[in-house]
């Protein structure tokens, strides 16, 4: 296991990048703590796989360094970094049995046969393929082959890090849950440093100790699932995390109040004057629907009952707004206004969260 340090790291696929926009990965400085489980989360093309491939050694960065426990490994090949990587699509040896596929990395390191047998048996059970260990990999389904790939990554206990690049894409939904649970247990049992790339927020939030949210080649927030939900550092985090995501309104800020259209919204603190674009963000969980009185005037477009709660799809001046009602709570008769719980309000300047007195929060 290793502490992974990213030092002034940036990458462009262009030979002579002229501006920040030419970089697929914007400058990044961060320590990935030894033994923690991270998820790299973001939409397609945001730089997740680029960053993972730099850490693994498959790609050399244009700028900066990668260090494992303080040792510069930027120019080291993947094999020299002692990592295990599982890719989006399965990579298995079709002519080998499942058992031999799982044992392959252990035999390459010269482990005793008895230890190899025990580890292979254990991992075979973890991935639900104990009964197929003696079967040839050829002819197995894509999800079965991906389970073998996962197992081969998990079978080693001496790796510096385990890297997963969207490994559950071809796995059926029920097995996805099982394998995420097994990966989490593996981390708890052995304490490997794990980095898991995904565009699926459920995978990220259920797997990781900390989630690294990326947007347009930049890390916009690193935090626990609770931190990402309660205090999104960037409007993209608020939009991307949560189902539905955060409601965002253009606003004018004045001390302890914000104005959205003609409606004044009390804020949970006093904010300094701003010079950039101001937006107010509030999650559907903190959006209250009422009939008449104060608040933003809205029209109910539709109601989606998903069992645990109702999702109210609302319209405010042509903008879609979402609110949640707990299970069993009726929609107020004549409902046409929304207000916000003060503790659920976040303020943003040029997409970055500001706290009372205007201090921009670090990602």
UniProtKB/TrEMBL annotation:
Where does the ABC transporter domain lie?
A: 4-241
Pfam families assigned to the protein according to its UniProt record, in alphabetical order? ABC_tran (PF00005), OB_MalK (PF17912)
Q: Which GO terms describe its molecular function?
A: ABC-type ferric iron transporter activity; ATP binding; ATP hydrolysis activity
- What is the native source organism of this protein? Allosediminivita pacifica
- Which InterPro entries does UniProt cross-reference here? AAA+_ATPase (IPR003593), ABC_transporter-like_ATP-bd (IPR003439), ABC_transpr_FbpC (IPR015853), ABC_transpr_MalK/UgpC-like (IPR047641), Mo/tungstate-bd_C_term_dom (IPR008995), NA-bd_OB-fold (IPR012340), OB_MalK-like (IPR040582), P-loop_NTPase (IPR027417)
Q: What is this protein called?
A: Carbohydrate ABC transporter ATP-binding protein (CUT1 family)
Provide the family line.
Answer: Belongs to the ABC transporter superfamily.
Origin: domain of life:
Bacteria
């Amino acid at each position: 296991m290793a502490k992974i340090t990213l030092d002034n790291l940036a990458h462009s696929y262009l030979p002579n990048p002229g501006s920040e926009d030419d970089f697929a990965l914007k400058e990044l400085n961060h320590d990935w703590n030894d033994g923690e489980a991270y998820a790299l989360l973001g939409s397609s093309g945001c730089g997740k796989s680029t960053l993972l491939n730099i850490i693994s050694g498959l790609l050399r960065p244009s700028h900066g360094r990668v260090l494992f426990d303080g040792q510069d490994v930027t120019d080291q090949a993947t094999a020299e970094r002692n990592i295990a990587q599982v890719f989006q699509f399965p990579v298995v040896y079709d002519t080998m049995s499942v058992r031999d596929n799982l044992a392959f990395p252990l035999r390459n390191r010269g482990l005793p046969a008895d230890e190899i047998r025990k580890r292979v048996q254990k991992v075979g059970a973890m991935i639900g393929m104990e009964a197929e260990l003696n079967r040839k990999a050829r002819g197995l389904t894509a999800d079965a082959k991906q389970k073998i790939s996962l197992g081969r990554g998990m079978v080693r206990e001496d790796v510096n890090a385990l890297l997963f690049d969207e490994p559950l894409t071809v796995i059926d939904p029920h097995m996805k849950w099982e394998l995420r649970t097994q990966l989490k247990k593996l981390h708890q049992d052995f304490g490997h440093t794990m980095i898991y790339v995904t565009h699926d927020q459920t995978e990220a939030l259920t797997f990781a100790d900390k989630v690294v949210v990326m947007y347009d080649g930049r890390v916009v927030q690193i935090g626990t699932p609770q931190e990402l939900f309660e205090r999104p550092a960037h409007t993209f985090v608020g939009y991307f995390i949560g189902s539905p995501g955060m409601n965002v309104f253009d606003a004018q800020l004045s001390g302890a109040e914000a104005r959205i259209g003609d409606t004044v919204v009390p804020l949970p603190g006093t904010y300094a004057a701003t010079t950039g674009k101001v937006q107010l963000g509030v999650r559907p969980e903190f959006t209250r629907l009422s009939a008449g009185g104060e608040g933003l005037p809205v029209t109910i477009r539709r109601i989606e009952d998903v069992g645990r709660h109702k999702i109210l799809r609302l319209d405010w001046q042509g903008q879609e707004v979402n609110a949640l009602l707990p299970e069993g709570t009726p929609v107020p008769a004549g409902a046409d206004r929304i207000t916000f719980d003060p503790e659920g309000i976040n303020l943003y300047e040029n997409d970055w969260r500001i706290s009372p007195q205007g201090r921009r929060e670090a990602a």
